[in-house]
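Hi R.,

As promised on Friday, here is the backbone we talked about, encoded as structure tokens. Could you run it through your design pipeline when you get a chance and send me back a sequence?
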């Protein structure tokens, strides 16, 4: 497994700024986000939000297989974390999109927002 975080997005997202990255977490991964700006303040009542989306090892492997099936351009020999990063790279809303995909597959996940 990769020892460092993988940045998926770092830039403007509409009128706000966002950072999205993956970190190894035991046998699984955590997708972390931080978003700040006037849109966040208007929608959430404070100017910064952070989220953590934890996917355990078995769910991560199942998700990686599904992503390769969905996107044949993804490298099936890459690690599950690298497959996930390739599938969601450049997506400022990766956390929401990934939660929807996990729900479609019936896979467990832990989500925290503050």
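Update: got your reply. Pasting your designed sequence below so it's all in one thread:
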């Amino acid at each position: 497994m990769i020892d460092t975080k993988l940045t998926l997005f770092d830039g403007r997202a509409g009128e706000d700024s966002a950072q999205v990255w993956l970190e190894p977490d035991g046998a699984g991964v955590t997708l972390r986000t931080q978003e700040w700006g006037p849109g966040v303040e208007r929608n959430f009542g404070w100017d910064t939000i952070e989220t953590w989306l934890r996917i355990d090892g078995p769910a991560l492997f199942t998700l990686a297989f599904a992503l390769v099936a969905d996107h044949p351009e993804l490298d099936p020999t890459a690690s599950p974390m690298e497959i996930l990063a390739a599938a969601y790279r450049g997506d400022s809303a990766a956390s929401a999109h990934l939660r929807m995909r996990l729900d479609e597959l019936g896979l467990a996940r832990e989500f925290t927002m503050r």
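One thing I noticed while checking it: The first strand starts at residue 6 and ends at 13.

Thanks again,
M.
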